[in-house]
Amino acid sequence: MIGLLRGRVLVKQPPSLLLEVNGVGYEVEAPMSTFYDLPEDDQEVVLYTHMMVRDDAHSLFGFIRESDRALFRSLLKVNGVGGKMALAILSGMSSDEFSLFIQSGDVKALCRLPGVGKKTAERLIIEMRDRLDRIKANSPVLAAGTTVQGSSADVDAVSALVALGYKAPEASRMVSAVFEAGMDTETLIRIALKNKAKG
Q1: Tens of pLDDT along 92-108?
Q2: pTM
Q3: How many CB atoms lie within 10 A of CB 179?
Q4: Could you give the CA distance from residue 16 to residue 121 in angstroms, rounded to a whole number?
Q5: How far apart, in whole angstroms, are the C-alpha atoms of residue 46 and residue 129?
Q6: Do 92 and 113 contact (CB within 8 A), yes or no?
Q7: Element holding 24 (H helix, E strand)
Q8: Which CATH number describes the domain made up of 152-198?
Q9: Contact of 191 with 154, CB cutoff 8 Å
């Protein structure tokens, strides 16, 4: 198993990135919390990784914080939660927020996440309550957002939100609601997600 990668990020297209490690390029999927904390270009980054092997694909997921990887792995143990939904949860709210919503049984807040319906939210609350005590929650707060039409930043932001599980029209509305000239993709996604979480 690949547990950690150290290298340079060559391509960032949320939720995917291409990480070069000693001349080998690793395609890694990561939550937006990881994208927000990536270093400037050409600086080395360390990602804690989780490799998922299925009959039809091998997927590698990367996280800046080990606590995010621990939460991701716990989420995968919940019936009906796969890699894509676990990434959406980590992208849609911080570990602290998630823990708070689980402990308080806030189904409505969890249902704001893409792909999470009432039954899934209830299952998350039941199955994750005990596991959260073992996970150190220290991720930055995020929310759910989408894009406008025009600049490459807003187009990329909408694409990232769609990849995280939001429907294209919803993603577009989210981005349009917060877009301002000069915003880069990551800022746009972060603000759109925060705005969505408040709603």
Answers
A1: 887 778 888 888 888 99
A2: 0.66
A3: 21
A4: 26
A5: 29
A6: yes
A7: strand 24-29
A8: 1.10.8.10
A9: no
Residue 98 CA to residue 47 CA, distance in Å, equals 22
Distance between CA 100 and CA 89 in Å, rounded? 13
- 4-63 falls under which CATH superfamily? Nucleic acid-binding proteins (2.40.50.140)
- Output the DSSP codes for 81-147: --HHHHHHHHHHS-HHHHHHHHHHT-HHHHTTSTT--HHHHHHHHHHHTTGGGGS---PPP------
| 11-45 pLDDT tens trace | 888 889 999 999 999 999 999 989 888 887 778 99
* Strands 44-53 and 4-13, sheet pairing: antiparallel
Residue found under tokens 């694409």: 159
pLDDT tens digits, one per residue of 37-74:
888 777 899 999 999 888 888 899 999 988 889 899 99
Distance CA 180, CA 37 (A): 22
Q: Give the domain 67-134 fold.
A: DNA polymerase; domain 1 (1.10.150)
